[in-house]
C-alpha cells in the first residue's frame, strides 16, 4: 500500500479523462484504451515486476501501468477525434 498509494492520482486522471471522452459519445475508443490498459500494460508489467522484485513488484508494476495509461488517455484527450463527435442531429426547420 505504501508503494501503490503514490500512483493513485494517475488512476483518478484516467477516470476523469475517460469519463469526459465517454460522455461525448465516443464509447469504443475508451473501450480500446481500457483493454490496452489492462491486458497490454497492467498484467504484463505486474507479472514482470513481480518476477524482478517479488511482492513489491506487484505494486510497482501496477503503478507504472497507471502512469502509462494516464499518459495514453491524456494524449487521446488532447489529440483524439472525440471532440468532433455529434451527439444529436440538428433537425431542419419546417416552419
From TrEMBL:
The keyword Membrane applies. GO terms for molecular function: antiporter activity; xenobiotic transmembrane transporter activity. It is a multi-pass membrane protein. The keyword rRNA-binding does not apply. The chain crosses the membrane at residues 30-53, 59-79. InterPro entries: MATE_fam (IPR002528), Membrane_Transporter-Flippase (IPR052031). It is found in: Cell membrane. One of its GO terms (cellular component) is plasma membrane. It comes from the Bacteria. Keywords: Cell membrane, Membrane, Transmembrane, Transmembrane helix, Transport. This is Uncharacterized protein. It comes from Xylanibacillus composti. The lineage of its organism: Bacteria, Bacillati, Bacillota, Bacilli, Bacillales.
